[in-house]
Inverse folding.
């Protein structure tokens, strides 16, 4: 290859793709590879990771208690996703179909809390829902209840917390999908005598289904991992997969087992993304 | 298409990984106070000092005072579990931290792994201020590697306006009538140790049959524990979410200040006792300064300033004299000596045993 040709063809490619590739390699690919390697390692009597090949970590994943936690975690993620979808769809529809100034306000209502640390917002819910929190005090003042209702420290509270933290991840892809919808199609549908329901299921939903899919994936996957929501609102009584991983890296001090658990979570993620593609999902609406 | 597929998968993964790092044990580094640059103090030949200590445990004012007295610039990093600290010290280059603050069992572990260096006893002139109850412990006989800083027990907090029964023991917490009323430490050795003590066993059992009994006992707690919280169990007690607590005495002391109906009970089986200690790491770059700092922390006035801010058990008897009645007569802070004597420390166990403990813990928390 002549020097000139290198400059003309390869250099621009290197200059544009190079930084991104390096970034992905250093901060995504290599750490993931490290996790994969570690999941086959052992620990010595002082909890140091030693490079001695073992499958024991993967065998341990089949422990019956772990299996129950996977199921519980999937159920929590499922309900959080369903909750987000039911609230998020009408909301996204409203944002995309309203006039400009209100659109900005509604959009900001999703985005601004999103900029605040989620840990703080989750503690806010704890204060709000606690035995001496605002909600219980208001209900008592209205004589609707005699003694405080226990909203906190159960699976329901965990689902609420997950749904709350991840709500923007549902609304934003939905908004993008609905925004693309052609207003005149809705008018045509109405002119041809279709009622609201029929228009929704035959015209609106098929054209926004990719937004629904990507929103669901973006909510479902992190819901499996947000251990701090399960700790703070769930009270640590109903673990999600993230809690299992966190424990192995902290108090349990068994990094290889934690790595094996992470690999499982990554496998679930890839499976869901694959499924999404099979169903005709557009990778671009996952934020690509 | 292929490339797009891969980038999409990678992005989905980074969302996932981002979620995992949201609240790990973070290392935060804050200057000890004075804005003096490292350069000037090093030029004066005094060097610096790198502390790696528990969060919310060493008052800033105390560190600033040390800097003012000695001209040594102090850098403070913090951790929230012994295991985090161990992992971090191991992963850094030797001597990155001069001083660490491990609890009793972790002192033993670090000595065993050759991670600490012996203290210079000739520099520790204030050691005489420390009560003998806290010295010469099994984890470091003769205090060659460590001197105690603060301590406490895992006591029982009782909100007497809600719980009318007389609570006297860890075993009382297993009563089925206290369904969903306990806030417990999110710490497997503490909770399983408490279950063991309620059966009259040690917190450090290694025998398989005994561990099986501890498991059966611990699982009875499943319905009673409403919330696991090590960071701030006092909040749930003060807010009224929980009427019973199994938590550190210092936290209970703060809860009592907010709500006098809360009382502390020392279990008759003997409580979980802990001491946190000052140690110098092997290869510390500023060992002389570190010895100076540790001696400073054992000074009566310094220890008093610590106790004015944090409600833990003060082993410094000279400081206790200065603290007066409000500290001395408060059992949640000044834990009685017989409770300490009767209590038990957590010890290091082999990995196979701890794996069993961890399995019970997972079963309890699932």
């Amino acid at each position: 290859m002549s020097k000139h040709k290198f400059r003309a063809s390869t250099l621009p490619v290197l200059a544009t793709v190079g930084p991104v590739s390096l970034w992905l390699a250093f901060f995504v690919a290599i750490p993931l590879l490290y996790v994969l390697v570690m999941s086959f390692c052992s620990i010595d009597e002082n909890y140091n990771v030693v490079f001695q090949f073992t499958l024991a970590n993967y065998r341990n994943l089949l422990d019956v208690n772990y299996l129950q936690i996977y199921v519980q975690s999937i159920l929590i993620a499922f309900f959080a996703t369903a909750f987000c979808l039911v609230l998020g769809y009408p909301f996204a529809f409203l944002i995309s179909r309203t006039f400009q100034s209100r659109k900005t306000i509604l959009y900001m209502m999703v985005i601004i809390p999103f900029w605040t640390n989620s840990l703080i917002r989750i503690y806010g819910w704890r204060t709000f829902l606690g035995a001496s929190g605002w909600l219980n005090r208001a209900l008592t003042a209205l004589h609707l209840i005699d003694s405080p209702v226990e909203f906190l420290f159960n699976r329901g509270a965990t689902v609420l917390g997950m749904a709350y933290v991840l709500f923007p991840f549902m609304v934003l892809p939905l908004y993008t999908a609905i925004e693309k919808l052609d207003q005149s199609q809705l008018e045509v549908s109405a002119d041809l005598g279709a009622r609201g329901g029929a228009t929704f299921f035959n015209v609106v939903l098929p054209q926004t289904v990719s937004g629904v899919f990507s929103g669901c994936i973006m909510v479902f996957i992190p819901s499996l991992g947000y251990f701090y929501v399960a700790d703070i609102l769930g009270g640590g009584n109903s673990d999600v997969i993230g809690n299992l991983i966190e424990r192995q890296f902290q108090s349990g001090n068994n990094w290889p087992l934690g790595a094996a658990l992470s690999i499982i979570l990554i496998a679930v993620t890839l499976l869901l993304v694959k499924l999404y593609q099979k169903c005709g999902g557009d990778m671009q609406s996952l934020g690509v | 298409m292929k490339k797009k597929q891969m980038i999409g998968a990678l992005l989905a993964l980074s969302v996932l990984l981002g979620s995992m790092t949201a609240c790990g044990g973070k290392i935060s580094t804050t200057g000890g106070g004075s804005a003096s640059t490292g350069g000037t103090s090093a030029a004066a030949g005094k060097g610096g000092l790198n502390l790696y200590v528990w969060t919310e445990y060493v008052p800033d004012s105390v560190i600033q005072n040390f800097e003012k007295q000695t001209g040594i610039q102090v850098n403070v990093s913090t951790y929230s579990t012994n295991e985090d600290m161990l992992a971090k010290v191991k992963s850094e280059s030797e001597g990155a931290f001069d001083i660490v603050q491990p609890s009793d069992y972790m002192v033993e572990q670090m000595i065993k792994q050759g991670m600490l260096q012996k203290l210079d006893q000739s520099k520790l002139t204030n050691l005489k201020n420390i009560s003998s109850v806290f010295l010469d412990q099994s984890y470091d006989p003769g205090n060659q590697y460590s001197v105690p800083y603060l301590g406490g027990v895992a006591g029982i907090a009782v909100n007497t306006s809600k719980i009318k029964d007389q609570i006297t023991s860890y075993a009382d917490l297993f009563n089925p009538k206290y369904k969903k009323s306990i806030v417990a430490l999110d710490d497997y050795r503490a909770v399983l140790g408490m279950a063991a003590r309620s059966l009259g066993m040690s917190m450090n059992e290694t025998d398989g049959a005994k561990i099986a009994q501890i498991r059966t006992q611990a699982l009875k707690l499943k319905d009673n524990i409403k919330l696991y919280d090590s960071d701030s169990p006092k909040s749930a007690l003060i807010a009224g979410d929980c009427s019973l607590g199994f938590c550190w005495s210092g936290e209970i002391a703060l809860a009592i200040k907010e709500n006098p109906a809360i009382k502390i009970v020392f279990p008759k089986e003997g409580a979980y006792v802990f001491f946190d200690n000052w140690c110098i790491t092997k290869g510390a770059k500023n060992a002389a300064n570190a010895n100076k700092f540790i001696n400073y922390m054992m000074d009566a006035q310094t220890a008093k300033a610590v106790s004015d801010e944090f409600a833990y058990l003060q082993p410094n008897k000279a400081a206790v004299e200065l603290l007066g009645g409000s500290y001395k007569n408060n059992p949640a802070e000044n834990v009685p000596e017989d409770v300490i004597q009767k209590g038990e420390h957590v010890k290091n166990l082999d990995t196979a045993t701890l794996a069993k403990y961890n399995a019970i813990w997972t079963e309890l928390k699932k």
The longest strand of chain A covers residues 42-43. Chain A touches chain B through 64 residues (CB under 8 Å). Chain A has twelve helices and two strands. The longest helix of chain A spans residues 3-38.
